[in-house]
Amino acid sequence: MNFLIKVLLFLLFTFQCEIFSRDIEKSVPNIDFNLFNGNKTSIDELLNEGILVIQFWAIWCSPCKKEMYHLNKIQKQYKDFGVNIVCVNTDNLKLVSKAKAHIKQKKYNFIVASDPSSQIFKKLNASVMPTTIIIDKSGKVVFRKEGYIIGDEKIIEEQLSLLINKS
Known about the structure:
Blueprint: H1 3-21, E1 32-35, E2 40-42, H2 43-47, E3 52-57, H3 62-78, E4 84-89, H4 96-106, E5 111-114, H5 119-123, E6 131-135, E7 141-146, H6 152-166
Parallel strand pairs: 3-4, 4-5
Antiparallel strand pairs: 1-2, 1-5, 3-6, 6-7
């Protein structure tokens, strides 16, 4: 491997580490969620039950919807361990009805919230769709992932298993 390729690989690795480590161990603010079912909840309320996974998605985002399929399985598997998954929809008000129809059709078991002005998205320093964040019981971000590729769900499960085994 020539020197230039080694340097480029090093820079790519460094950049990825920066993306994945951003905000790790940073406490999250208490944010209120307006849920698709008309109810409200907050980060603090959900953290009282245990670990929280937040994913940002939009109806137009295919990788988001692929990840949501796996997050639903993870929710079923880890619900008894106090894990809550909140998928936060960032579509504007014109697309919210399509997003609600999608959720209803898929019969997902996780919590779905609406963030049409992307205020929650911004407060949690998300920048791409999907962004997935795991917050431990103390309110600290312990994992952050941007984008979705097949296999990311295994990484999320590993992170949850580590947190559950710590408690």
